[in-house]
Amino acid sequence: MTKTLIVYHSRTGYTRRIARHLADRLGADLDEIRIVQPMHGVLGYAACAIEAMAGLAPALRPMRHAPAGYDLVIVGTPVWFWSLASPVRSWLEKQPLKHRVAFFCTMGGSGAGRVFATMAGLAGREPVATLALLEKELDGPFERKVDAFAARLLAGAPARPARRAAQGRELHAA
Question: What pTM was computed for the model?
Answer without folding.
Answer: 0.81
